[in-house]
Every structure is written in C-alpha cells, then in structure tokens.
Amino acid sequence: MPPSGFGGLGSASPSPSASVSGSPPGAAPAGWWKPAVGVTWQWQLTGTLDPSVAVDVYDVDAVTTSAADVARLKAAGRRVICYVNVGAHEDFRADAGNFPESVRGRGLEGWPGEKWLDIRRWDTLAPLLEARFKVCKDKGFDAVEPDNVDGYANNSGFPLTAADQLTFNRRVADLAHRLGLGVGLKNDVEQAQALEPAFDFAVNEECAHYDECDTLKVFIAAGKPVFHVEYDVDTAKFCPKTTALRFSSMKKKQDLDAWRQVC
Description:
Elements: E1 18-19, E2 33-34, E3 41-44, E4 57-61, H1 67-75, E5 79-85, E6 88-90, E7 104-107, E8 114-117, H2 122-139, E9 143-147, H3 162-178, E10 182-186, H4 192-195, E11 201-205, H5 217-221, E12 226-230, H6 235-244, E13 248-251, E14 261-262
Parallel strand pairs: 1-2, 3-4, 4-5, 5-9, 9-10, 10-11, 11-12, 12-13
Antiparallel strand pairs: 6-8, 7-8, 13-14
C-alpha cells in the first residue's frame, strides 16, 4: 500500500494464453501471461528500483515504475507485475478525487490516508479501476496485483458479505483479462479455493505467521504459483514448509524495499 499516483490511458485485447516461457521480450503479446509454479520473484514497492536481482519476475508499483523501467526489466528476460490498489481509496493518489465520498468507508488500520471502498458499487468503480489497469497495460506490464481484495473480512464501514467479495474479485480478474493482463489473488486466503479458477497466481503475505499456507495449495495444484513473503518469521522456520509446498517464498521488510532473503 505505498503511496503512488495514477495517470494515462491505454488498452489491449486478450488473445490465446501465453506461458512463463512464452513470447520473447519485444514480441507481440499472445494473450495474458500465465506464470508457472516455481518461478523466482522480487517484490519492490519503495525506494529506487534495483533491476539487478536475478529472478524471473518483478512485482513493482504501477506509477513509480516507469515504462522505461518495465522495458529494461523485460529486455533482461523478466516478467513484470503491476501493483494496483483496487479495494481502498487513497487520498494521496492523483485520481483520488474521482472516487465519490459515497464509496469511501472506514480507514485501513495502519495505513493513513486509505479507506475501504464499497465494492458493491461496481458501476462507479469499474471505470476507475479500468483506467488504473490501462496505466499498467500502457507501460508494458504483464500482469496486475490488485491489493485490498478482502474488505468483507475487515471493518470496512459497509455491510460487505463474502458473496460481495467473491463477485468483486471475479470482476477485477475479468477486467484484467479483458485488457490482456494476467492477475493475481492478493491474500483473501479464506476464499482462495473459490477464486483460484479466476486468477493466474496468488500473492500472499505471512501465511506462515498465520498458519494459512495449506489453504493456498489449490493454486499449486492448478499449476499456478504462489508468490509468498514473510516479514517477521525467520527463513529457517518457514522455508522448509513453503519449499515443500513449492511456493516462491522469501523474507522481506514490510516497507518492501529492495532487500530480500530467499529460501
């Protein structure tokens, strides 16, 4: 949830799917990207981008990462995921004024300036989220990581249900796919089994800390990777389990700068 702003538009149409070893950098896309289990990754949302990490995939911010940054990563053979907040309003973003007060709920604990969105208002949110996803598409990203897709399980200020969340998350996934982008399920572990068919990978924070990693095995069983981080648990404690589960795991600092410690 680091601060960023949004601007710019673009579009593309999906076509047949591509694997992690699909089109070479610079080739025309063959549909949205579907990563393979076991690919390595770096997640950096703050600080000066370090493009030198020897991994298959980078997950970086939609706005602070330039189109030139994305092009450089892809020219080096990396796939690039675009971090986008879809479930919370952020008063520090360039498009903040486009979100009416009626869809802004309670603040997110620990994240000043952010408020949960009324995800039932797809009529209002869809064009705003499409514009954000088009920013990612315009810059050359391969996929999106939509954040805060578990408002129903938090004190959002709205009477959101599990069914509301399933509907919203599936709509978000479909929106990404219609733009030719892969899409990952961020957390929302409780609904992982129901949502796995709609998503191409999972991004998880602290499933070892909360003893939830087994719930994400549905992605691995479907041939889809789980990109996983822990913040407080030592690698010696979580790596044996997550390696056995075939997760792409590492330890990160919670501000998600360039530092990483892999399994």
